[in-house]
## 1
Amino acid sequence: MITTIGHDLSHVIALLQEGNVVALPTETVYGLAADANNDEAILKIFSVKNRPSTNPLILHFATLEQAYPYVSNFPVIFNELANHFCPGPLTFIVPRSSLVSDLVTGGQSSVAIRFPDHPLFVKLIENLNGPIAAPSANLYGQLSPTNSDHVYEQLAGRIPYILEGGACQHGLESTIIGLVNKKVVIYRHGGITTEALSTVLGYVPQTLTQEQSGILTSGMVRHHYATQTPLFLGFKPQQENQNALQITLTKNEQIIGPHYVLSDSSSLLEAARNLYAVLHQADKQTFKKIYIEPFPNEGLGKAMNDRLNRAAAKFSNH
Ligand code: TXA
Ligand code: MG
């Protein structure tokens, strides 16, 4: 299959209507999209990504009204959070209705829904007249794509079309939340920070691990979001100078040898936007190891540390 990168929105609509999967830009990362009401198209998502079919997909809607029929109960507090943060990088886990395909939820009684903040993606949902199911447009377990080239590198030959939308504005996946004992909990840190959620909720939402939540999300799998090159958190030992790359949040005169900086002004927002792109770039070169300085554990730093810990877990022996 030949994979084209282009701007042809009506072609993308036709491809989706015919049951194909297509890569699309969102404000977080590129998504691998299919018509959520077409089971054959959904099955293609899993095979293109090599993703286990038990791992559920997010449904993307243009408006809350459009989502309601797919949900059996949308808690009032989620309405309030949606009013503050949506469209945007926040995903809600809610009880599903019978309209949702079992293939989307992996047979679970809940469904993940999100309202993406990207004009092209929203236009497609409106044209399709229904939700779009989309995981990140990478191979299972690998780095998420934040531009069309990243998608092409992993999925060329597997999908017909990548809709060009430039670099993603946030560069990190959405924050995933649920409701447990009437309290909002975080299943995956992402573009909406714990601090931002707290100001609306009036309390700090707990983060639930896989064991605590009893549900499996790939964002909770210990080895995930990984580079091909072994990745370590921290600073490289001196003897590794030329073979190892150091990535830091901001400028650091003490680093000798190859060195990438994520944000000259120490901005976590800018670092998040650049993180995956820098990791993709580093991975393509001949470095034997990548060292990355952990981020301050606040704001977007939490989500970035989470991704790096999972990537590094692949290369540790523990
Ligand atoms: O920013 C994002 O969320 C991107 C863009 C494309 O929207 N999507 C994304 O999808 O990151 P994915 O599939 O790569 O990660 C979504 C996570 C997975 O870990 C999945 O297991 C979890 O959401 N998930 C989906 N439905 C769920 C459900 N019903 N219950 C618990 N977790 C769920
Ligand atoms: Mg993913």
Note: The longest strand covers residues 90-95.
## 2
Amino acid sequence: MQPISATAARHQRLSQEALLKVRAGVERPRYDRSGLGRGIVHLGLGAFHRAHQALYTEAALAQGDTRWGIIGVSLRSPATGNTLQAQDHLYSVTERHGDASHTRIVGAVVASLYAPQALKQVIDAIADPAVSVVTSTVTEKGYSQLPSTTGLDLGDENIRHDLANPERPRSTLGILAAGIRRRPRGAPLSVVCCDNMAGNGDTLRRLLAQFAELSDPNLPRRIEDEIALPNSMVDRIVPAASTASLDLASRLLGVRDEAAVVCEPFTQWVIEDRFAGPRPAWEAGGALLTTDVRPYQAMKLRLLNGTHSAMAYAGQLGGFSSIADVMANPAAAAFARGVMQDLRATVAAPPGYDVDRYCRELLHRFENTALAHLTAQIATDGTQKIPVRWLPALRESCSAGVERPFLERALAMWLHYLRTGRSDCGEVLAISDPGAAALADRLRSAGCDADAARQALGHAAVFGTTPWPAPLAARLAAYLAALANRGAAALLSMPPRQ
Ligand code: CS2
């Protein structure tokens, strides 16, 4: 092979052929990609899937079980699929913490489909008996659920469309239902939800069953008999790509990878061992198969995601653009630790698990300056995330008559963020959350802070229908007043009881 200059190579796009030009030291697929089967359909071809489930599958493929090539499906944008197609579906994952990094090229994704343009192929793929696993990362809002009840949102326009046009579905549930309907009988399928929801598999089962009952009288029975929906807890911090992350990956690879993912070294996947048919040996990548995932889910959703959301709103209001920036500010970092401790008090340890050590590791992960994990990214979709991450802990604490000073302040910060849409410096914040307008309207039309707190807690779509205690509303009102008068800094530096 002719040596090529680093500059020329950097402009060459990653592809099967260009693999030969990738720098030494970069790991590459340890199996023959041309012989891969198509055993998995994945819905939601974002960075998280590519840096998480796809890597566990990569490890199973490297063990020689070549059934598990992934057909990646995008539901909302053709961009990732187009990028991957131009690279023979190869992409890189770079794990980074501080100065240390490790880069590999992943070969597990073998095809990509954009559902609105390739609906028939998507449905055929889910119906194919050679596919025995469907995984999904479509974000919390991608399941058309009402966050406070986890029931089907019948007002969701995609659901209404799909119930009227079951053969032309647009929603995750509609597409799954159409694929399952077409599967031959006796071809077991496991659908593994990999989004951050408590009891995510059970929730998806409920939503799918509700949708099926309304769309096809035979479908609920088939789902009951032939489809397994194991719960799973997924964990890896994977910021959205940026020009800087793509440039970094290209420098490390020696070729240009427009689908490169840069993420943290930590990864965890705990899966309920309840599959209907064959599955990849994800244990090869370190997955833990267990009988009960719920304690792991509660621990992760509250301690990692719950603290993340608090840092996101504190960061948006206080002008901290990334999680590492929050951790570098003593008052903001102390606030994050306080929120984590408030949530820690509500978490029961999974059997044999050292939760305090987990908390210490989390804080170390949050300090990772090599990742630009933006608070604006984590702040999105709060009306879906907060009912999962904070409200169960808050509800349990209220029932036990316990105040959670840091968590309650975080809640006030989120409401203040929605109410004003501005940072402490007056910068306009881009709020990306389809459910936010209704809550923000209530907050903005309230006569005073006490009314705003009551209005928010009374917003059943997020806070549920069970009334919240008046003392909580009073504390929230005081925090809202402090935020309005003195900004987020006032709450960050406030001692636990005041
Ligand atoms: C984050 C998660 O964006 C968010 O809401 O809290 O994506 C988080 O980084 C992952 O769940 C970590 O496993």
Note: Residues 294-318 form the longest helix (25 residues).
